[in-house]
Amino acid sequence: MTNDGSQPPAPRASTWYRRPRVVVVAILLLGLVLLHHFTQSPPQKTGGRVPQGDAAITAGQSRTGDMGIYVNALGTVTPTYTVTVYSQITGRVMEVHYREGQMVRKGEPLIDIDPRPYQATLTQAQGTLQHDEGLLAQARMDLQRYRDAYSRNAIAKQQLDDQVQTVVQYEGTVKADHGTVAYDEVQLEYCHIVAPIAGRVGLRLVDPGNTVFAGSGSALIVITQLQPITVVFNVSEDDLPQVQAQLHGDSKLPVDVFDRSNAHLIESGTLTSLDNEVDTTTGTVRFRAEFPNSKLALFPNQFVNAQLLVRMLKDVTLIPTVAVQHNDTSDFVYVLKPNNTVAVQTVTALTTNEKDTAVEGLNSGVRIAMSGFDRLENGAHVMVRTPGPQQARRPAADTVAKTTNSSIAP
Q: Most buried residue among 190, 239, 252, 337 by CB atoms closer than 10 A?
């Protein structure tokens, strides 16, 4: 009872039992979900590969053509001749006749050094020579007189012999004078420096008014021959036997040089020589090729990519390089059958590049798979789709392909 004597209100009952239908429906739905989960049968195993229908591939075709076996190497452009000119006399530079970077011909004047001291020395030597030649002529006349007098018994034999030796002495003096004159003439020629070879001069190293000294280590001018020019590159000793086999037949092996990106052909030439020993630190042999360099595209000390054509494979089977697959033992391709299945065909790759591969073990005109290899196996059904524009363009059968592989097939 409360303070006022009335009865307290009865407690309020819960309302969950007032909705029995809702609770029953929820329990039934939960039971159905659990029953479906535990009674659903597991997916059937298919050996790790879920069937996805026929594999979609693009197809190519083998063809007959020619393909070269090339040896690739990094090369350096090296001038045939490089001349560094130094002063061989001491004197003041009077004139500089060349321009920086100018192409000069052999014998063209380059630098003039003050010739006056050397001209004076030459004149003095010529005067001495003239004086001694006069003495020699006088001695020879006296010798002839002594011989005539001796024939008449007018003088003693000793006097004649003395005159003979006097003539010999004067002859030696005159010969020494000729040497002095020749030396002074050479010194005078050194005052006028000319181009010893044809080529391009470098930056100017001396200006008029400066004094140069004989035997100094300071160069006056540097000239490099550019036409023709050579490229030196290193070839692996493993490739040496077949290169030598071609050289023994007196054949000229072509060499192409490309830029550093290996995308643009710069010049074509021929192999001229190779070194006489193998570099033990790198296992390579140095080769030298000569190029006409008619457009002066090759520059001394420039780095280039050299491609040496060792030999040309004639009428071989060519297939797209992307079609060649590899396993642990051999190379193979997927041959497309008339019933739209593929079969594994083992091939032997002779040489390859980024576009084509020359192979043995496959005839010309055979259709082969070029894509979808992750779903292919021997006997698999395929669906051939139309190739894109890049795959549709293929070179003609008589196109000569170039390999970028440095290995040489036997």
A: 239
Domain span at residue 372?
A: 60-78+226-402
**34 Cβ partners below 8 Å, 6+ apart?**
none
Do 273 and 170 reside in the same domain of the chain?
A: no
The residues pairing with 343 across neighbouring beta strands, listed in sequence order, are 335
Residue type for position 351: T
H-assigned helices in 340-402: 389-392
Closest CA to 96 of 207, 184, 180: 207
Res 130 pLDDT > 80 = yes
Pairing of strands 63-79, 303-320: antiparallel
Tell me, yes or no, whether 71 and 111 share the same domain. no
- On whether residue 43 sits in a domain, the answer given is no
Question: How many residues in the chain?
Answer: 410
Say whether both 186 and 137 belong to one domain.
yes
Residues 258 and 385 grouped into a single domain: yes
What pTM value is reported for the model? Answer: 0.65
